[in-house]
Each structure stands twice: as C-alpha cells, then as structure tokens.
C-alpha cells in the first residue's frame, strides 16, 4: 500500500499509514479547536477574557463554576462520547463487513435506554445512578442477546432476529414507563433517550475517558488481525483460532465502547454509523482508519453540541436531535448517489 | 455489500443438516398440503372467534353473552348496554381491523423487500404518523383525539412516499435494501424532528407519550367506519399481490424473466402498506412487533407461499392483538396496560423461541 | 472539610444552639398564644434541608405556578429575576406583576439560571433540583444559591423527583406553614400573615356555609381529570385535589387510588364510579384558563358511552385548571370555586 511506513520503537514496530495519520491529526486538531470554542459559548454570557480568567482561577464563583465545572467537562464528554461511538461503529462495520452496522443492532442502545428510563422514572435516580443503570442495561442486553441467539454457534440472522425481538420488548417497556409518570419526569426521561450532553460534569467525562483509555488500545492493537478479516470470512476462518479470538475480543470492545458512551450521553444518533463512513470516503479506502474515525466522531459530537446550544434560539436542544437531523440526510445522500451503500459492495 | 446482509446471514450459520433447498412456493411449513392448511385455517378462524368473544366479555366488569345479546336485541340504555355498544364492540372490531391490517402489511413489506425483518415501520409509516400528529397538536393546536387521526394518516402516507422516492433514486429502482435504508434514514430524521418539538412543547409531549405506545382503548365506531374503505382497498390489493410476490421471492432477474413487472409490484405493495398500516397506525398508534412477527409465525406454519401466508397472517395477527388487549385490561386493574406494550412483552419471547427452534423460514 | 471550616461550622452551630435556647426561653416566658417562630437561629428547615435565613434573598428565581404566585403574593415581585413553567394564567391580582417578569415556558438551563445571578430558587414542584436540571439543592448552595420546595411536594431526598408523596403533607395547613416560613425568610412576615388570613377566611366561609347543611353521606363525588387516549387521567388520593374537594364539601371519586398523584383509568371505571361532578383540568400553558376545557367538556358530553353518567345527564361537567389543583396561594380560591360548583344551591 503506498504511503505506508514502519515506525520502530525498540522491539515494537508499528505499521503506519501516513495519509490516515495526517487526516486523523487534522480532524483531532479541528475537534480540539471546536472544544475550545465551546468553552466561550453558552447562556451565561462571557467574553474570552472572562473565560480565561475563570480557567486560571480568577473571576466570580458563578463564572468559574460555569466554565470549569460545566462547559469544560461537557466539551471533554462530547469529545469522548464521539470518539467512543465512532470507534465502536468502525470496529463493528469492519467485523460485519457492512457499512451500515451500528451499535443499535446489538441491542446496546435499547438496553441502555430502558434501564436509564427505569432509573429515572421508577427510582428518580441521580445522574450517576442513571448512567450506571444505562451501562448495566447495555451490557446486560448484549449478553442476553448472545445467550438467546446462541445455539451451536451464533448465526448472524438469528442474532438480528433475536435483537429485533429484544428491542421491541425494551421499546415497549420504555414507552410504558414514559406513560406511568408525571409529565416533568417524562420530559427528563425523553431528554435522556434523545441523547443529550446537558449538565454532563466531571464524573461523566472521567467515565468515558476511562473507557477510551482502557478499550482504545485494544482496538488499535488488534487492528492488524482485523485487517485480515477484510479479506473475507473464508480466509479469516482458514487462518484459524487466533482470528476467531481477536474477532470476539473486538466485538466485546465495540460493545463496551458503545455501552459506555451511551451510558454517559444517551443514545446519540448516527455518529457510530456516519463517522467511519466519512473517513472512509475521505481516504478513498475500503478499510476504515480507527484513529481518524475516532477523531471524526469527536469532532462531530462537539460540533453538533455547539449547534444544539446555539442554533435553536433561546433554549438548547439535545445533541441527539442535531446528529439525527444532520446524519440522516447524509445517509440519504449516500443512498441517492448510489455508490457502495445499498448495493453490493 | 449490504445486499448480502439482508438476503443471507451476517456470518455463516451453522449448517442445519435437515434443510434442503426447496422450491420457493409450497413446500415446507408445519402444515403441508392444501388440506391440512385449509383445515388449519378453519381452526385458526375458530380461535379468532374465541378471541373476539373474550374481547367483548372481559374487562372492568365481566359481561355474559346474554348481556351482549340484550344490548343489541333489547337495548334499554343501561350502563351495560352502553358499555357493550360503545366501548367493547368498537374496541374489539378495531382490534380485528388493526390486527389484520398490520399482519397483512407485514407480509407485503417482507415480501417486497425480501427482508424477513421487514416491518411496516420500515417505510417510515410510524415516524411520519408521529411527526404529523405532534405537528397537528403543537402547531395547529388540534386537541380532540379524533382530530389528529387524519394528520397521522397523511403523515404516514407522505413519509412512505418519501421513502419510496428516495429508495427508487438509484440506477436499479427501488431495490429491497435501498428501500430499507431509505426508510431507516427518513424515520430517524422524522424522529429527531419529533423529539425536537416534543421536548420544547409540553402539551405535545404529553399527548405523544401516550399515543406512541399504541392502544385500542380510544376506538370509536364512527372513526372505524371512516377507516373501512381504506382497509378494504388495502386488503383487496394484497390479495391481488399474492402471486406476484411469490415471483418476487425468486429474485429480481428470475421474476422479470417470468414476466413480472417489478416496479408495478413494488408500487402496489407500497400503496397497500400505506393504506393498511397507515390506517392502523392512525387509528391505534404505532403498535410494533405484530407486523414483523406474525408473518414469521405464519410462514413457520404454512411455508413461504404468499397465497397461504397472507390469509393466515390476516387471521393470526388479530388473534395476537385481541388476546394482548384482553390481557392488558385485566393484569393491572384498575388501570390498563396498553395493547402495544402487551403485544411486545407477550409476543417477543414467543418469537425468540420460534427463532431459536428453527431458522426463520426464508423468503 | 478544612479544619478552619469545621471550626467555623462548629462555632455557627454553637451560636445557633445558644440562640435557640434564648428563643425557647422567651417563648416560654412570653404569651403562650404567640406561636414560636420556626427559625432555628439562622436557618429554616424545608424538605429536610436547612435554608440559610440570615439575609432576606434579593434575587429570586421562581419555577412553576405555585412558586411564581407565592412570590407575587408575598410582595417580592421586584426581587424576581426570572420565572418559569406556568400551567395556566396567573391569578388576576398578579397578572400585572407577572407581565413584567422574564418568563421561560420550560425550565431554563443551569447556565441560563446562573446568568441571572440568583441567590434563591423557589420551586413549586420537586422536578427542579436534580443533576440533570438545575442541580441538587446542596450543589446550588455551593454557588451561594439557597432554595425552597413548596412542602406539600417534598421529595424523599435532595436531588430526587419523587412521585410518591407523603399524604400527611398534602394539607392546607402545610400551605400556610410554608407561607409563614417564606414570609420570615423574605422578611415579609406581615404580608405572609395577611395572605394566610385571607385564605383562612375564604376556606372558613365555605365551611360555615356548608356547616350542618351537607351530611357526610350526602357529599357529592367529584372527579378531577381529563380524557386521554386510554380513557381518563384522574387525580388520585395523594393529589392536593383530594384536600380541595374535601374542604369544598365533596369527596374525590378516585381518592382510593394511591401511590401517585395522577392515574390513568379506563372509561368503564369512570362509568362504574359514576361521579356526581366532573371537573376537566386543562394544562399546561401560560395563557390557559378553565375556558380552554370547552373542547374536552364537549367530548365528554357527546361520548355515547358516558351518556348515563350523573355528571353528564345533569350537565355537571365543568372547566377547571391543573393550576387550581396545585397546593399554593390559589388553593383557597380553588376550594371556593369547587364548592360553588358542587353546592351551587348553597353558594348561589
């Protein structure tokens, strides 16, 4: 492959694909810039000077709180959630060799949503209780899905069919919970299940940061064996058990990343699906570069959150609304162009 | 690439030795042979009659057959008479109509997209109906329950048209996967818009959260009569589509070589689905799962021939819906569980069992 | 906590204790009829949270109908920096004062709230002080913002939005107690006593009129609710409606439904209970009035299934508002309004 080089660090050697690195760095820089910009934007009007003042410990207690305890963790959470979702999507799309697979299919979103809404409606849980509950719901649903679909191996079709049934049950449970509560509680739950970054604070940023710190290296380290999977199922099977193992580990990694991101911000639509595809198109490669995909995801969510906070008049909308309104037309555009998506590829 | 997903497993399924290639129509199914299927269908109709009866008799107060008889033969205007004539019977008929519509439209969607996971919602019907209903409430201030039924139907139809239009933009027309993808994308877009509205308008959220569950409790005789022509037209269209859909199941090329006009079959199916599922959704809200599950159950019983799958689905779907509705009336007294919830909670485990027991019958 | 903070806190606690003892001593020595102020020195307790009461708040944000109307009634309209979330038009006497306020149809974001630099948030509902909304009361205090929840709706714990309400707190006396505490807090004691006296007079007048004329078993049954997709959504036992109907000489037809304030019931349930009166409680918009119930009243009157209901045959389906159901300064008027509806012969 042209543009590929090998970087040696002692005994470790890493194959580097330079266009991918360049694109990834560019996207990461843009994401960081958008995150910085978002520190100056919000309902609490502040000049740049005041923001810097707040960051350096000068200025009033409320301004400091707004910048340090609200905007900064929110921006970092947005970056982390975007990166985690995009990584998850990129891994799943590679594993399934299908550009349209996203974490929703493996029941992560539905499970997280029902559990979170249960925590909100039935136990009026705190934000962290809701996030923990969502995480448990996501992981539990994914496990249940594999368990129920397992019968002398997991057939893809059975997995999807069982996934649909579970999603229907969970969706019904969520709707039921929404009807059994006061309107204000329903509003709170609705906000969560649209995907929102409002009032995300340091514990949220730390949670998704930790998930990335633990899981992203696994994804990058196994990226090579993963590339073999691109050759096709038969080749991969011929290569034997090690590939099967990395396949399983990567599936787990993708599930866990999506679960953590969803626990923190709710099911933010389309990022996992679209971010890897944008990178794929920019690089004109079949393989989705994980680093640029993650950076692209971060940029998407930070950017969407900026829009969500500023573009809709007085009050902000949940970030999931913006990613949905922007992401869906992109998918339609891909469809209308007729290339790759929706036909054999 | 994506085509493969819809038409064959995501990853190779373990070979099931007893499965042999079979002809696309006739063949497998628990009931083989026209005799067994006809007798079976008679039995299913009897079960449906039982479900209809249970739906009229069971509820907040238990009624007897005599009560029902009196309500029509010797109407005195007593509470019981009113309950029978204005609540139980319209609700039961709504269950019958909505169930049949959802079951049949599920078969059509799955047949025309050759996607065993197809659901009327895939054409954007639920999302379109929801957005239109929410718009009617928040922008036009429609508050009467019947007021937004018309909007919901128009929204469902408009969304389905948009999905079909986008799905047909590509070089080879409305291919099955393109249709599914266009449906998913447009549903997501409409869903985001719906969320944006209901999160800012409390009154809309309050209506929406109840509407979206799907319920037969609001059924009303007059609305049912208005819906009848749409449902009849949809059902007639579905009957006419049974044979062409069998041809479509063979694949585009083979179907074409057999003289099937694919664009006509697809267009007519989409129209029938809008008429059936659009009306059902407008009348009872987006009741999920019936449309996707019942055709599978029917195929498990009678194999993939649409001439059998359609009538069986038309009978089994109302059974599922009516039983779920009756269960919902008695388990949470004095409140009621909406039928959309019970269908999913009762139907889904059954469906999972079915999926585990055998490979879902192909198309 | 740093040692200096701890010492300071200890010091505060000690001086508070001394002050409390002094107050107790004067209370004992003074005339027994004057009630002992509930202030424990510098704080007043509200929903298990001690609210600092040394300085009257100057910049108040009021959220939800009862809080907004309470603020106007206590004469602190000029101290309001913002208002949010009305269920209906504010009471006539406060319309002018409310028209000058900045108003948010939904709760503002925490940033938006802080941009008003409030020192106090007064809430008429317990859905405000959560992590996702404006933050817990404890977290607001760290920013120098004290808070209050009208106590018939206390959550079980700070940060929660419980729907399970202790029925013992759902009383008119609790509304008075809140007004008294808030009067002390805002240094508007006299105004608070005037408001309470006015409300007590209204309720008392109703009680006098009813006294001896309506036997316990003749109390009409009243349903407060509105049609829904499923049938009706009605006010159950723990809702303040029950207290209002009771004081107005009626019985909540759905008083036995407990656990939550609102319940969804089947149409057949309404037929079986056959309430004597149906009050349709429209909600939630700053311009809403009971006249907006007209469509829903018509819907009930025209429903063939409900044709036999006493309320329908007698033409006793009336407009009401959700705001009238809520515990607050309008509750006495709500009692008079309900009494006038269900005992029109006595209150002609």
From TrEMBL, chain A:
The main location class comes to membrane
What is the topology of this protein in the membrane according to its UniProt annotation? Multi-pass membrane protein
Q: Which CDD domains match?
A: TM_ABC_iron-siderophores_like (cd06550)
A Pfam family found in this protein is FecCD
Localization annotation: Cell membrane
Matching entries from PANTHER family are given as: FERRIC ENTEROBACTIN TRANSPORT SYSTEM PERMEASE PROTEIN (PTHR30472), FERRIC ENTEROBACTIN TRANSPORT SYSTEM PERMEASE PROTEIN FEPG (PTHR30472:SF24)
What is the name of this protein? Iron complex transport system permease protein
Q: What is the lineage of its organism?
A: Bacteria, Bacillati, Actinomycetota, Actinomycetes, Streptosporangiales
TrEMBL record, chain B:
Specify the domain of life of the species encoding this protein: Bacteria
Keyword Transmembrane tagged = yes
Q: One Pfam family this chain carries?
A: FecCD
Instruction: Please state the protein's primary subcellular location.
Output: membrane
Question: Which Gene3D superfamilies has this protein been placed in?
Answer: ABC transporter involved in vitamin B12 uptake, BtuC (1.10.3470.10)
Entry annotated with the keyword Transmembrane helix: yes
Question: What subcellular locations does the record give?
Answer: Cell membrane
Question: What name does this protein carry?
Answer: Iron complex transport system permease protein
Automatic annotation (TrEMBL), chain C:
Q: Is Signal a UniProt keyword of this protein?
A: yes
Q: Which keywords label this protein?
A: Signal
Report if keyword Cell cycle is assigned: no
Q: Where is the Fe/B12 periplasmic-binding domain?
A: 59-348
The leader peptide range reads: 1-29
InterPro entries tied to this protein:
ABC_Transporter_SBP, ABC_transptr_periplasmic_BD
PANTHER family from the UniProt entry: IRON(III) DICITRATE-BINDING PROTEIN, VITAMIN B12-BINDING PROTEIN
Q: Which family does it belong to?
A: Belongs to the bacterial solute-binding protein 8 family.
> What is the protein name given in its UniProt record?
Iron complex transport system substrate-binding protein
